[in-house]
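Researcher: Going back to the complex we discussed earlier. I've cleaned up the inputs and rechecked each line, so this should be the final set. Can you rerun the prediction on the complete assembly and write out the structure?
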Amino acid sequence: MNMLQDLGTIAPLWIVAIAAAVVLLLTVTGGKSGPAPNTGTHLVMVSLAALAAAAWLLVGHDGTKTAFSGAIVVDGVGVLFGLTVIAGAFIAIMLAAAYLTEHGLSQGEYFALVLLSTVGMMMLAMAGDLLTLFIGLETMSLAVYILAGYRRSNRKSQEAAFKYFVFGAFASAFALFGMALIYGEVGRVSGSPSLAFAAIGKAYGPGEVAAIGWIGVALVFGGLAFKIAAVPFHMWAPDVYEGAPTPSTGFMAVGVKAAAFAGLCRFVAATMVSAEGRTETAVLSIEIIAIITMVVGNLLAVRQTQIKRMLAYSSVAHAGYVLLGVAAFVANPKPETIQAVSYYLFGYTAMTLGAFGVVLAFECQDDRRLDLPISRLSGIGHRYSATALALVVFMLALAGIPPTAGFFGKLAVFSAAVDAGRITAVIIAVLASAVGAFYYLRIIVVMYMRGSDCQEKKVNSSWLAAGLWACAGLTIGVGLLPESYLVFAKRVLTGWLG
Amino acid sequence: MLQSHLPLFLVLVVALGLGVFILVVSSLVGPKRPSAVKADAFECGNPPSGYARERFGVKFYLVAILFLVFDIEAVFIYPWAIVFSDSTRGAGTLSPLLVVVEMVVFVGILMIGLAYAWRKGALEWGPEHGKGLETTTAGH
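Model: Rerun complete. Updated structure for the full complex:
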């Protein structure tokens, strides 16, 4: 039956969604004296098992499958970015297990929200039309708004959730309005209005689309650029990253960003890539946003004294590098560029979550402050050598130093941009990442060379240790063996852009 | 393009003009006999009592949210009923069984939500109940 086939195609989505419901119900089943204590290994296990099952299905996926009349497309982009967000959720749940226990917060709701948000992210990566894209965007965002305010008795956490929500609703409205304009313009050009990417591609192809259609494209682009925190839509990032509980911040920095980039790739492939005559303008616009993003992100990160704010600006800068890859894709639409972008984001997921994991380990226990001043890392290199070594790996990776995933990611994206002939932008990007190296290496200097009397206490948790090991392993492993990832990516991307 | 929007523009001008006209004329011509009763806040015809900015129990908010969830559920069932009646007469492409199963899934998801809220104590009303919410989710 057709319906069953469709359900089989989207199995990764509903497996994770059902797991979220199960986790939620497990938190309230218990003894006669009210709900069971809201923590426990079984909650973590159910969540991780569901994510692993979804990842297993995606890894085994072959070719391009569509479901529900083309609303969901499971193809190379869906698989690669889907796996990236699953990896992000997997590690974020491990970090959260340590964090929530430490702060006495309930675990079930947190994991359920992470899982539901992951469903939205996968939907965004597998969207076959703008409507699915929007539903995925909102499913992802609504859960992440709550995750940002999870420490609801803390003012900074409340502030973060509120700011993110208000700005996010604004960005969603932009995107929705843009979709309406595109819908109308597709109808005017082709005779039947449609939100499907295939129909949009056909209508935007011959160059008959009027200015209003391109305004729609710009509005949707802006809505997605908000989620990836590209300048000038990055204003919310430092405050929200600082105020949100650290595992939420890490999840936000990697999952939301990867999913929004997946949506962006699909969206530009349907509109800008297929359009005749407008491509150069489109490439230049994205390139300018990318350059501003990496320059502003890196320069502001240098000035930060709090580590979470620094990582927030660093994630803005990384969004700029990836946007350069998107610009290269529009200029020279090849599956290899998407491969480079997804490789970058996969490595970025591991190293960023790792960095936030180390922040989590040393965060002050004082409730009024949610951030960790960089100066308080002094001496941890001598006292906690393993954790400090992990942070060294993550900082080197973020700075883009071989043999980590950060280096090969930058190499792949920048060489894709050179292939597409965007030499000037690549030179600026390389200079910007040289500035970036300064503040990443400063952390290492503080850890090892500023005195050896360390007053910090470290959170002791096997989940945290496992998460950090996983991040460090992925950061180095994906960096040392880029071939195995790229071969896989090549296989699933075969036939994409057919 | 602009020609076709002219009626819209005219409606806008007339609407604005009428509003301004009524306000200006009534403030110029209308009689003014203010009294203490007239100056009071309007509260559905009752004499106003107390200050409007009182503190409400946060439980009203919870009840409102739960109401909203099930209200939307009811709203969704109406269009579903039309699709279902079409499918039983063979009008659509869907089989009636499939349509029923889809609604069961939808209601089932809401039931999970209700079960969760119930066990969490969101439906408990007294002060000694509903502690499940506060004790298990309280941060430091």
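Model: Worth noting: Chain A has 20 helices and two strands.
Researcher: Good, that matches what I expected from the previous run.
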